[in-house]
């Protein structure tokens, strides 16, 4: 298919990874804007691959027209969610009224592991939508503009997804100390960062894959009445500056202290919400104790972080992989559901598949 044909019919595929926050986004306002700045590692192995086939509608019909397959199967619940999302972003993509979209998505990681798929799936979809805009309108030819709009659209789908668009390390949220930072989209921040962070590893310990008792959406909303909210937002912003400095200097001790404090603060905020709730499991705490003990005894830079759930992300530099994998196998695997650990690492960001 050549030239103008691609303007009326075509197919695009993007693969986009998940990310793990080091300084957490927890609390939002307006059209999915963050109450504080956040930073994450972009992952490599946990990704979503999305293909969108687009075709000009044969008849003029009102509204958005899609079909959605997840892992080869029509999933009405996801289809309805994506339909609603696309209706909500017609102002960004007027072409959505004129085209029918066949969307097909699959994840690299197994279903129901407790790994949130919204960051990878929303960023993959956003990249496909921008790719189609580029094909049919000729806009977004500039790479920076393309990624910026993809990040905005991913943010509207699921806040933290906006960070997945960039390789290695991304920052989201306006902060005077960080040039070009914005609440609208994430920015890459790998420049001037110590190279040790470009090959960091993240072994995800699946403590439980059960559905969480309180969703992230509800958790963000509960920050509204949280008595510690204001000081939390200030703390997060000061953590950003400390973390960036530690990453420039390659100071793993300082870095790890902030990362672990962020994880525990996130869960402390949940426990201080109204109503309070706990997402950690007993094995989460046992694993944390074992990690801290192992670090002390072996003097090795291995640290944990947590998402809004019970699973642990074990973060460590690539050069101690051998020692850490033996530690995981001996002391942490027995604490995991079905002995499940997913080994991931910092990655190069999304990829267009031809
Ligand atoms: O993007 P959401 O709305 O699923 O929120 C993500 C929240 C955390 O994962 C807990 C933190 C973060 O910054 O990713």
Number of alpha- plus pi-helical segments: 8
Shape, principal axes of CA atoms:
globular
CATH topology value of the largest domain? Ribosomal Protein S5, domain 2
- Write the H/E string, N to C: EEEEEEHEHHEEEHHHHEEHEE
Kindly name the structural category: alpha+beta
Query: How many angstroms separate the termini?
Result: 13 Å
* Rg, alpha carbons: 21 Å
Tell me what the CATH architecture of the largest domain is: 2-Layer Sandwich
Q: Helical residue percent?
A: 25-40%
Text of the CATH class of the largest domain: Alpha Beta
* Small molecules held by this entry: (3R)-3-hydroxy-3-methyl-5-(phosphonooxy)pentanoic acid
Question: How many distinct domains?
Answer: 2
Strand content: 15-25%
**Unreliable segments of 5+ consecutive residues:** none
Mean of residue pLDDT values:
95
Strand elements, count:
14
The biggest beta sheet reads: 8 strands, mixed
Task: Give a structural overview.
There is one protein chain. This protein has 2 domains: 3-192, Ribosomal Protein S5, domain 2; 201-345, Alpha-Beta Plaits, CATH 3.30.70.890. The model has no long low-confidence stretch (mean pLDDT 95). The strands form 3 sheets. Strands 1, 4, 5, 6, 7, 8, 9 and 14 form an 8-stranded mixed beta sheet that branches. Strands 11-12-10-13 form a 4-stranded antiparallel beta sheet. It is globular. It is built from 8 helices and 14 strands. The two termini are 13 Å apart. The chain is α+β, with helices and mostly antiparallel strands and 354 residues long. (3R)-3-hydroxy-3-methyl-5-(phosphonooxy)pentanoic acid is lined by residues 21, 24-26, 38, 118, 158-160, 216, 220, 266, 307-308.
């Amino acid at each position: 298919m050549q030239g103008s044909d691609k303007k009326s019919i075509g197919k695009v595929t993007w693969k986009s990874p998940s990310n793990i926050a080091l300084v957490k986004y927890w609390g939002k306002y307006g059209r999915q804007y963050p109450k504080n700045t956040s930073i994450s590692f972009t992952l490599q192995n946990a990704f979503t691959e999305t293909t969108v086939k687009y075709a000009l509608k044969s008849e003029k019909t009102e509204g958005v027209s899609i079909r959605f397959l997840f892992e080869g199967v029509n999933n009405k619940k996801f289809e309805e969610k994506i339909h609603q999302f696309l209706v909500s972003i017609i102002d960004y993509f007027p072409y959505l009224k004129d085209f029918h979209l066949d969307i097909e998505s699959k994840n690299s990681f197994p279903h129901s592991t407790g790994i949130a798929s919204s960051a990878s799936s929303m960023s993959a979809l956003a990249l496909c939508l921008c790719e189609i805009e580029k094909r049919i309108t000729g806009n977004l030819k500039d790479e920076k503009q393309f990624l910026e709009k993809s990040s905005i659209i991913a943010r509207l789908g699921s806040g933290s997804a906006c960070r997945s668009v960039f390789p290695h390390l991304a920052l989201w949220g306006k902060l005077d100390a960080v040039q070009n930072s914005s609440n609208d989209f994430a920015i890459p921040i790998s420049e001037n960062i110590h190279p040790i962070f470009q090959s960091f590893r993240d072994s995800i310990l699946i403590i439980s894959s059960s559905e969480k008792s309180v969703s992230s959406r509800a958790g963000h909303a509960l920050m509204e009445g949280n008595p510690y909210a204001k000081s939390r937002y200030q703390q997060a912003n000061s953590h950003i500056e400390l973390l960036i400095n530690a990453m420039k200097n390659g100071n793993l001790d300082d870095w790890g202290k902030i990362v672990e404090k962020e994880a525990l603060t996130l869960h402390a905020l949940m426990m201080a919400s109204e109503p309070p709730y706990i997402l950690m499991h007993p094995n989460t705490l046992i694993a944390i104790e074992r990690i801290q003990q192992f670090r002390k005894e072996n003097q090795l830079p291995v640290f944990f972080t947590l998402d809004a759930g019970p699973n642990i992300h074990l973060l460590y530099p690539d050069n101690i992989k051998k020692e850490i994998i033996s530690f995981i196998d001996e002391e942490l695997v027995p604490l995991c559901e079905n002995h499940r650990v997913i080994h991931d690492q910092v990655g190069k960001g999304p990829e267009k598949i031809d």
